[in-house]
Amino acid sequence: IIHPQVASPHLQLFNSPEEEFKWLLQEEVHTVLRQLQDILKEASHRFTLPVSGSEGPIKQENFILGSSSAEQVKGVLTLQGDALCQADINLKMPRNNQLLHFAFREDKQWKLQQIQDARNHVNQAVYLLTNRDTNYQFKTGSEVLKLMDAVMLQLTRARNRLTTPATLTLPEIAASGLTKMFTPALPADIFVNFYINLNKLCLTVYQLHVLQPSSTKVTTPTSTPSLLPEWGSQRYEVSHVHKVECVVPWLNDALVFFTVSLQLCQQLKDKISVFSGYWNYRPY
């Protein structure tokens, strides 16, 4: 990983701040842009993971889920790029210790929109950095700042897609079709959700039970809506929640690349801003 420090290749001696700023625009800005391109292309490659060459098929990776505190949930998840192509799960029911096993049907896979969105933002940042002639020269500091702001916006959005868990409400899970992807079919009182949190691939299992018509009190984990009104006359609430996860190393790499790139952008913005008195009033 390239260190985020922006260093001039030679000790430069300038006769005036104006001359130094002109050199900054013509030389150092392009050095930083090349560094950013190299880093973000590496980040983009992490999301595609070709076996060999840029056109090769995306390899499958198996991840063992860390056991929950009571070891109620165990399993293996198979990731292929931005798609969860297999999930093999064992669930121990707490009320009777019954062991349930379920896996994705062979014709099903689950797209992880967080990974897809993060990759798209990275590719957009690369496009912003490369969408100009190789001999292009920046004329003003504001032009550089505008480019850095646009790149940082895409990088921030990419990072936020991975750092903000895309947890679904129970009605959203019911409507998503995720519960219909398994064989054997999931029991009606079991819901699952897969999502990314930082560098981890996570699984949450919700166990529900039917509320009796006279029941008015609902106890449910914070921010997890318990009722599924669209299920007609039957009303459910959450009785147990199990969360398990596994580390995806290349997601960690991507997050590091995002941080390094954002630091590079900010350092360049800071250097340009030092000369604001010149690029506001001079033709450079």
TrEMBL record:
Concerning InterPro entries, the annotation shows: RAVE2/Rogdi
Q: Which GO terms describe its biological process?
A: bone mineralization; brain development; enamel mineralization; gene expression; hemopoiesis; locomotion; locomotor rhythm; memory
GO cellular component terms, alphabetically, are: nuclear envelope; RAVE complex; synaptic vesicle
UniProt-recorded name of the protein: Protein rogdi homolog
| Protein's organism | Sphenodon punctatus
Q: Which spans are transmembrane here?
A: none
Q: Where mainly found?
A: cytoplasm
State the family it belongs to. Answer: Belongs to the rogdi family.
Location(s) in or outside the cell: Cytoplasmic vesicle, Secretory vesicle, Synaptic vesicle
